[in-house]
Amino acid sequence: MNEFELNETQRLAIYLVQREVLERAIRGDGLVASMEVLCRGIEQILEAQGGLCSILLLEEQHLRHCAAPSLPQPYCKAIDGVTIGERTGSCGTALFRREQVVVTDIATDPLWEDYRELALAHGLGACWSNPIIASDQTVLASFAIYYPEPRSPSDFHRFLIEAFSALGLLVIDHYRLAEQQTRLSGELQTINARLTTIMQVIPDEAFVLDHTGRYVDFFGNSSQLPVPPETLSTQSVSSLFEPQLAEQIMRVIETTLATKQMQVLEYEIYAEGRRIVFEGRTAVLTDSRHDAHRSHSGDQYVLWMARDITARKQAEDEATRLALFDVLTGLPNRRHAQEELEQLLEAVGRNHTLGAVIFLDIDDFKRINDSLGHDQGDSLLKQVADRLESSTRRSEMVARLGGDEFVVLLREPLTDADALVESVSATARRILGCFKEPLAAQGHAYNVSTSLGIALIDQPGLKTEDLLRKADAAMYAAKRLGGNRFTFFEESLQQEANRRLELERRMVQAIKDLHFSAWFQPQVRPDGAPFGAEVLLRWLDPEEGAIPPDEFIPIAERSGLIHQLQDIVLEQSCQMLSCLQEKNLLPPEFRLAINISPVQFKERTLTERLSFFIGRYGLNPERFTLEITEGLLMDQQQEAHQQMQCLRQQGFQFAIDDFGTGYSSLAYLHRLPVDQLKIDKSFVRELEEEDTGEAIVDSVIALSKNLNFEVVAEGVETRFQSDILCAKALSSLQGFFYARPMPGVELVDYLKKALRSAG
Ligand code: C2E
Ligand code: CA
Ligand code: CA
C-alpha cells in the first residue's frame, strides 16, 4: 500500500497526527509528550480495531519506557529496563536484530517465551515492532503496535508502522540533537568560563593572527593593547610595529606554521615613553571552523601569547650590572675588565692590532683614607673614577679592580710596537695630568697622585692573568721610584716581583725560626769616647746568608710584617740596655738609635709599642733616639708631627736619617720636634773627592748650630774622612772606620774595651 491508496479520511487523520506531533516537537513539549501524542493519534486511527501503540527507547542495550499511553501501567513498568536480545519479545528482539519483528500470536511465538505470561496477563495477544534507526546507524527506539488477540498486520498497518517510525525518528533525533546541543553548549560554557578565568590569571595577552599577520581575535586585558580592542581586527603586524620588528614577528609566524612548533621571541616596544619588553610564544591554532574554509581561502592561524617581562628584564639587567659594574664608582669591575681583556687579547690575536693594560694605584691612598674617614675616601675614589673616565678615550676602558686600584685597557689600531709605546705613553701622561688639579674632600683640596704600570699587548698568545701581574709589577716599580709616574713592565721587574713574593713568604717562617736579630753599630764622640749605637736589623738565613735590610725592609713594610720586625728590634734593644746597665757598662749619656719605619707612624702603632717595651724593661726614654726620614715629615705632616711631639715630651729624641738626600729645608725642620741630623754617607764620601763636599758638611754644621741641632756623620770609612770630620763640631761619628755593625755580645766587649781605655 502507498499513500495514494489511502482514503481521504485516513490521509487527513495521518496528516493531523503528523502535524500535531511536529508542532509539539517544535514547541519543545518534550520527547515523551510528543511521542504520547503520536501514540494516541495512531490509536485513534486504529480505534475500530483496538490497536495500542508503544514507543520504547534504547539506552545502552536496555529498553526504556517512553510513551505507551494506552498499555497497562504495570506491563510498561515490567518491561522497562529489560536487556535486549533474541527472545525478548517483539521490541527487544527487533532492536537487537535491527529489523522489524512481527509476532502475530504472543501465546505461541518463541520470541515471547520469557514474557508471554506477562503479556497475556495484560491482555496482549499480538505485537508488531519496528526499530527506529538513525542515519548514523544508531538504533534509537522501537515503535510497536499491540492487539489484544492474535493478528497479522494489514497493508494499512504496515504503512502506518513505516510512516510513524519515520516520524518517530525525526522527533527523537530532534530531541537527541537538542539535548546534545544543550550538553555541548554547557560544556562550551564551562570551557569558556575556565579560559576566561585562566586568561585573567595569566599575565599574557593572547592574539590570534592569520598567516598574513592580520589580527583575528584577542583574549586578555585590553588595557595593555596599543589600539582599542574593537579596532584590532582592522590591524595587522605591519600596521602596529616598526618595519624591522614586524619582519621579525612575521618570520616567527611563518616558522611556527612551517614547523608546527612553539617559537619564542623577545621583543621591545616603546609605549608612553616607556620601554616594554615582551616575550611572545606561538602555537599553530587548529580551528575546525577555519579549517573548513581552508581549502579555498588558504588561511592559517597562529596563537600568539605575549607576556610583559619588563620587570624580569630589568631585574636581569640590574643583576648583570651588579655582576659587572662596581657599585661605588659605576665603573666596570674586575670581572668585567678581565672579560674585556680576554676579548681584547682575542682581537689582538685575530686582527694583528695591539693593546696595553695600564694598572693604576693612588699614591698613599691608605693614609688619605685613614685620615679622612671612609666616606670621604669613597668620595675621593668616585672623583678619581670620574677623572679617569673623562681623561680616557672611547677606545679605552677604565675599570675599578677594587680598593684604590684601577685598570685602563687600550685597544690600538696599530701594528708597530714603537708607535704603541708612544701612544700608550701619551695616554699615561694624560692620566697623570688629570690629577694635577687637587680633589676635594671635607671642603679641603687634596693633592692626589697616581702610579701607573704598563704591560704591552704586543704579541699574540698573552694571558690575561700574566698581563695584569706584569702591569701590577710595573706599577710597584713606579711607586718605588716615588710615585706620580708611569713605568713599563720589564722582565727584570717580574723577577724582582717574584723575589719579593718569595722573601715575603720566607720572612714569616724566619721570624718564627728566630733568624732575625738586632745588631749594633757603635757611634763615637770626636774624642773617641762612646756616644751610642745604631740598632740595625739582620736577617741571617742559614742557606742564603745575610739578606740585606734594604731588600727586606720595604717588603716587610708592604706586607705589614714590619711591626713584628720592629718588635724584635725594640725588645733586643731594651735587653741590650738592661744588660749593659747590669754589667755596669752603660755610660751616662749612651743612647741607642732605632730606625723607625714610616708605616709605624701611619698606623699609629709606634707610641704604644715603645711604651710597652720600655715599661717592661723599666728603661728611660732618654736612652733612645728615633731615626726617621725626611720623606716621612714631608708626606705625613699632621699626624706624624703630633705623634713625634707626644713622644718627645716623654723624653725620646728624633734624628733625621740620611739628611741632605731629601728636600726639607733646615728652617722647616726647626719647627719640628727634631734633635739630630745624620749627614748622609754620600756627603761623607764626597769629602775625599771634591772641595764642595766639605763645604756642604760645613754649612750643615753651621746652620745646625744656630738651630740647636746635634749633627752626626755616618758612613765614615777612612782615616782621612775621620780626621776632617773630627776637627769639626760634630756630636758623634759612625762608620766602618770605627766599628762595623756587630751582634749584641760583641757590643758588650766593645764597650768594655772602650770604657777601660777611656779610663
Ligand atoms: P741606615 O739607617 O742609613 O743605616 C745605616 C746603614 O749604613 C746600615 O746599613 C749600615 O750597615 C751602613 N753603614 C754603616 N757604616 C758604614 C760605612 O762606613 N760605610 C758604608 N758604606 N755603610 C755603612 P744596613 O744595616 O744594611 O741598613 C740599611 C738600611 O736598612 C738602613 O739604613 C735602614 O734604613 C734600614 N734598616 C736597618 N735596620 C732597620 C730597622 O731595624 N728598622 C727599620 N725600619 N729600618 C732598618
Ligand atoms: Ca739609620
Ligand atoms: Ca742613614
UniProtKB/TrEMBL annotation:
Residues 500-755 form the EAL domain. Coiled coil: none annotated. It holds the Pfam family EAL. PROSITE patterns: EAL, GGDEF. Residues 353-491 form the GGDEF domain. GO terms for molecular function: catalytic activity. Its cofactor is Mg(2+). InterPro entries: Biofilm_reg_signaling, EAL_dom, EAL_sf, GAF, GAF-like_dom_sf, GGDEF_dom, Nucleotide_cyclase, PAS-like_dom_sf. NCBIfam families: GGDEF. PANTHER family: BIOFILM ARCHITECTURE MAINTENANCE PROTEIN MBAA (PTHR44757:SF2), DIGUANYLATE CYCLASE DGCP (PTHR44757). This is EAL domain. It comes from Marinobacter excellens HL-55.
